[in-house]
Amino acid sequence: xxxxxxxxxxxxxxxxxxxxxxxxxxxxxxxxxxxxxxxxxxxxxxxxxxxxxxxxxxxxxxxxxxxxxxxxxxxxxxxxxxxxxxxxxxxxxxxxxxxxxxxxxxxxxxxxxxxxxxxxxxxxxxxxxxxxxxxxxxxxxxxxxxxxxxxxxxxxxxx
Length: 159
Hints:
The protein has 3 helices and 10 strands. It is an alpha/beta fold. It has one domain: Purple Acid Phosphatase, chain A, domain 2 (4-Layer Sandwich). A 5-stranded mixed sheet has the order 3-2-1-9-10, with helices on one face. Strands 4-5-6-8-7 form a 5-stranded mixed sheet, with helices on one face. A hairpin with a 2-residue loop joins strand 7 and strand 8. 40% of the residues are buried.
């Protein structure tokens, strides 16, 4: 199972159209917040499962949760925007502590607008970056999370 992972789309429809025009074969989408309502557009356009959480810039917080806990292809995935767990230095220590408490194999987060993948304590941490507003010299990005292998695989792509 392959999932397209995105975050921090910020309602910029041109970038969402460009992303969907790539027609990358996936079984679903994971949106790590900041304009989680963009997930509704993706769901409508693709008819695929789309999982989304709200971020610190989302105004429609009644429709989404701050955290989702999913079981996909045998992996326990924690989907969060991350703003409640990252300190000013973008340190993942709080994310790691929470991930261990909820028994997550994979943590998907956003907020920093910078692509990031790191494995610590047998937990994969993935931030796809931002498809709309990259930071820290990065590029408009998203990730493909492949759960069909013995170990989860991540590929970053530019928009």
